[in-house]
Amino acid sequence: MRYGENVPMDKETIVRQLLFVSGIPMQHRGFLYFHSLILEAASDPECDYEKALAKVAAIFEIGIPELDWVLRHNLYYAWEQAVGKNLVFGDKRMEPEEFVSRVLELLHQYYQPGK
Question: Which residues of the chain have pLDDT under 50?
């Protein structure tokens, strides 16, 4: 395998890589659980990010805005508990809102690799 090569990955590997990139430790199971469900729902080639959110929201019988809140809450919790004000992306320190935006941006890249 060469650097930058597009290699198929299972959902656990994708989530692990996402957590590594985002700086969130693996012990934050809430984040891992919800996102692995979304990755599973999004693994269908016909399923985009919005449809994946809808599928997972249906599992928990909650609306997409509530699910989005849960995901954001987990991200904030991870930020507060694990890395706090010391979080660095590249060479730049980030506040919680920047962190959440950046991780959600990464999630969208994983769910919609063509975009």
Answer: 1-5, 26-27, 29, 81-91, 110-115
d(CA 28, CA 4): 28
- The class level of CATH for 11-111 reads mainly alpha
Question: pTM for the full model?
Answer: 0.34
Which neighbouring-strand residues pair with 92?
A: 89
Task: Quote the tokens at residue 95.
Answer: 């506040």
Tell me, letter by letter, the H, E, C secondary structure of 40-91.
Answer: HHHCCCCCCHHHHHHHHHHHCCCCHHHHHHHHHHHHHHHHHHHHHHHCEECC
H or E, element range at 96 = helix 96-111
Q: What is the pLDDT of residues 51-76, one digit of tens each?
A: 666 766 676 666 666 666 666 666 55
